[in-house]
Write a structure and sequence with these properties.
single chain; Glutamyl-tRNA Synthetase, domain 3; Arc Repressor Mutant, subunit A; 3 domains
Length: 483
Amino acid sequence: MSVRVRFAPSPTGFLHIGSLRTALYNYLFAKHHGGTCILRIEDTDRTRLVEGAMEEQIKSLEWAGVVFDEGPHVGGSHGPYTQSERFDLYRQYGMQLVKSDAAYYAFDTSEELDAMRQRQQAAGIAPKYDRSAMRNQFTIGEHEAQRLLDENAQHVIRLKVPIHSDVRFHDAVRGDVVFSGREIDDQILLKSDGFPTYHLANVVDDHLMEITHVIRAEEWLPSTPKHVLLYEAFGWTPPTFAHVPLLLNPDRSKMSKRHGDVMVQDFAKKGFFPEALANFVALCGWNPGTDTEFFSMTELIEAFSLERVNKAGAVFDYQKLHWMNGEYLKTRAPEVLAEELLPTLVTRGFEYVQPAFVASVIALVRERVHFLQDVTDFADYLFGDVLSPLSEEAAATITGNEALITAVQTFRSGLNDETIENLDAFKELSKNSAESAGMKVGAFMKPLRLVLTHREVGADLFGTIKLLGVQRCGFRLDAFFSS
């Protein structure tokens, strides 16, 4: 049987980075096996829908390189992939479960359910539907249940869990898993408004769409025994389950905004390259079995397997992600990056924004930054001639040093096209300038940078001076000592 997987988000918010990883793992697994990856919209919870959320999620997934073979956005057809368009189907299957005695009617009011939970909490019992104490077919009898149904009394349909049996299944990540029937709640399958819950709709759709592998986050593991019971009740063969580890904050708590960005659009807005984010996220919980850290999407597809997905939670290392983005920055063509950066430079009002010049600046400074947009601030002294003011203390370290002034003036007098184009000539001029004042060349370069850029650190000084050119360098040197 051909591999078929699905990513099934709910449009109740924008795409979380953990959801991106789940979608990516489904995509990689399907493509590795030459299978099909489906996008399905699970919008049964109508009270929590967020306007525009689904469009944003699809856009974020495509930005990150996760493109589906089937789904509501493919070919412009919703097909069978949006659950809110299939409510009649779910009710049909819910009624089938009642007829086969795998589910039952319950007529409890919200007040009765609240009272039940309070009793259980007071007794130190984990909240769970009390089939023997509540109003349902078992306590009011079939005749009374039918009378209430005939009167259109408010009710739900619940799963009838075999409490005296264990539920067993094999997980491709976690191995054999066993749940006691006594631990499993009689889950609501159809709500009082006739809408299905996630559990019923999920199982029905996975079966009808011939899903072979369900790859989802660890937090869905407690729901899986309910799903296994539903497959058994329908007489269907369940898919292979694979529950991937949660993404964790650096303190190993569940990932949240307290520690940084969590929505994919946040990462995109900050300037992360989609390839870098996908590469990093793939390695959060999956071990390729080698020391390789950089993968193209094609290489990820070739290497990915569920067998190498870890059980333990994966810490989301923001610092490493920043570093990885910087490494991707180094591999991009400066000419292409320049086109991306130009609008920002123009908006900032910089003078030197010729594409070839911008590309040269990017090539010079990108070893020192992690994001393309950082080039603007890091190298503002190259794009414009209005420099950040030096502190009085920094300026005094130069103007109060006669030897240093002599060295800088010697450097200024020897500055010409050859000394800024030829590295050997530049080194010779720097050496002679320092020696003219009885200084070592290393002690001369830092204040020279400070005068030219008003920065104590920066990219290679020869490359910086070469890009500035004789005229701009001479102007800055003259202006400093005449002020």
